[in-house]
C-alpha cells in the first residue's frame, strides 16, 4: 500500500510534460504512486482527433528521470473529457482508501493563446473534492514585470 496517489493529466503537450515532472517529484517526496491519466473522447475513438495517438512512454520516462521508480508509475487511458476522466481516477483511488492529489498543467494541447489557465484546470479547481495543483508552464518568469 502506498502513502497516496498523485494523479496527473497528460495530453502530450509541453505543459502536460512539465506537470508530469512536477507530479513525479511530488510522488517521490510523498512516497506515493503516480498515475498518469490520458483522456480519450469520442472524436479520438472515431479516429478524428490526434489524442488517441498519444504515447505514454515519454511521460513514464520523464517520471523516471526525476527519480520515481517505474514500478510506482501507472499509465491510464480513460474514456471521456479530461475533467471527467481525472475526477473518475480520483474517485477510484479514494475508494481504495488512498489520499489523492490531482495535478494538471496550466494549459494543454487545446488551449487558446493568451489564456492563463486552460478549461480543464479551471473545471478541476471548481469541481474537485481533492487537492488540485496547477503547474505553470516551464520557463515562465517568477514575477510579472509591470
Describe the structure.
This protein is α/β, with parallel strands linked by helices and 146 residues long. It has one domain (5-117, 126-135): Rossmann fold (3-Layer(aba) Sandwich). The chain contains five helices and five strands, in the order E-H-E-H-H-E-H-E-H-E. The chain has helices at residues 14-30, 42-45, 57-65, 82-95, 119-127, and strands at 5-9, 33-40, 73-79, 100-105, 132-135. Strands 3-2-1-4-5 form a five-stranded parallel β-sheet, sandwiched between helices. Strand 4 (100-105), helix 5 (119-127) and strand 5 (132-135) form a beta-alpha-beta unit. Helix 1 crosses helix 3 and helix 4 (82-95) packs parallel to helix 5 (119-127). The chain is globular, with a radius of gyration of 15 Å. The relative contact order is 0.22. The model is unreliable at 111-116 (pLDDT under 50).
Write a brief structural summary.
The protein has 146 residues and is an alpha/beta fold. Helices cover 36% and strands 21% of the residues. It has a five-stranded parallel β-sheet with strand order 3-2-1-4-5, sandwiched between helices.
Number of helices: 5
Order of strands across the widest beta sheet? Answer: 3-2-1-4-5
Report the sheet with the most strands, covering strand number, pairing sense and barrel closure. 5 strands, parallel
What is the number of strand segments? 5
Order of helices and strands: EHEHHEHEHE
Which topology does CATH recognise? Rossmann fold
Amino acid at each position: 500500500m502506498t502513502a497516496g496517489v498523485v494523479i496527473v493529466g497528460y495530453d502530450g503537450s509541453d505543459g502536460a510534460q512539465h506537470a508530469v515532472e512536477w507530479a513525479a517529484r511530488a510522488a517521490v517526496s510523498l512516497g506515493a504512486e503516480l498515475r498518469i491519466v490520458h483522456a480519450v473522447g469520442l472524436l479520438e475513438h472515431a479516429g478524428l482527433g490526434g489524442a488517441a495517438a498519444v504515447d505514454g512512454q515519454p511521460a513514464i520516462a520523464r517520471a523516471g528521470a526525476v527519480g520515481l521508480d517505474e514500478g510506482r508509475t501507472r499509465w491510464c487511458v480513460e474514456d471521456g473529457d479530461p475533467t471527467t476522466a481525472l475526477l473518475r481516477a480520483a474517485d477510484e483511488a479514494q475508494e481504495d482508501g488512498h489520499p489523492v492529489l490531482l495535478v494538471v498543467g496550466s494549459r494543454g494541447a487545446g488551449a487558446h493563446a493568451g489564456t492563463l489557465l486552460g478549461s480543464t484546470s479551471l473545471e478541476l479547481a471548481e469541481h474537485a473534492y481533492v487537492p488540485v495543483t496547477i503547474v505553470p508552464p516551464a520557463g515562465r518568469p517568477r514575477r510579472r514585470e509591470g
